[in-house]
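Recall the central idea of this unit: under ordinary conditions, the amino acid sequence of a chain determines the structure it adopts. In this exercise we apply that idea directly, starting from the sequence alone.
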Amino acid sequence: MKRRPRIYYTDSQKALMWERWKQGWTLHEIGKLFDRPHTSIHQIFAPTGGIRPAQRSRAATALTLVEREEISRALVTGESMRSIAARLGRAPSTISREIKRNGGYVGYRANQADEATWARAQRPKPCKLRKNRELARIVADKLRMLWSPEQISGWLKHTYPGDESHHVSHETIYRSLFIQARGALKKELLAHLRRTRGMRRSRHYTQKTAIHGKIADAISISERPASIEDRAVPGHWEGDLVFGSGNSQIATLVERQTRYVMLVKLNGKDSQTVVNALIKNASKLPQELYKSLTWDRGTEMHAHKQFTVATDIQVYFCDPQSPWQRGSNENTNGLLRQYMPKGMNLSGFTQTQLNAIARQLNERPRKTLGFHTPAEMFSECVASTG
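Accordingly, the structure predicted from this sequence is:
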């Protein structure tokens, strides 16, 4: 079989690749645009970890090719460096360094000097985490605690408000992880991110396609009061199941205002088992902090009326195939995958272990809470009801 010739992509083709990658296209889909396999596209993205490199540009103060041609011609005629500098409006030291770096008086060539200068400028610049090892250590410790880069960045600003040396953007943390040439954070720390891919991907895709059933006497989310919708008062929760292998599952509950998480062990996914477990869990909280529950249209909540009668907690149901209507819960389920990767059997977790995982999640700072933790916010709610 004849091997296909190697293809060299133009800058415009690479720009199209990066644009499609940002839009959420897969490597296979992008490859089809160029009639090439996904491995060919992977080679473009892999060196920078799926993060588009910044567009290169020359500094405004750098010598131009026209100026270098002037220098070259002046050297041929024997003009002095000071004379050349005066004519170009440059410092004599600038002209001297330029000539010494690029062949000297005899070997200086304008085009070669310009290309060599451009190539030298490609060397990676040390990032903040590489220069500040103490800051890098703090970031690494928080990553090992399964904090996200955004949570780390926000926590640092919240904890060290007047110390710029301890501030770093979440984008810098991501770049330090995915672009190993920066030498700031070890690649092993990638395993502690919520998503453990080797390249950073766009989030423009839906992760969950739920199978919804018909729920008798379901009260639609459209009938949910405005005070619940705008998170004005605490005590309103979102819930769902997280599934593992071997027909295992747990229930996840998130309070809408504080983002406080509770995890509930389940011995089955039938409606009676799920509802009984939720009824038992509801008894742990005062009525003022558990007034409603919003669920998707999964068949595990067929017995929702029994739950409401036993707890006096109203259940609302999302529209079919609309998981974003339980956004806080969906986000939490994604965070849980750091502790419970897809394919793991969840039946081995005890309720005590689930409580410990929930505690870790509740002690992470959240951007939406001004980088306070759900535990802090929920404790204030408990105190106010006491």
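Residues 12 and 113 are 26 Å apart (CA to CA).
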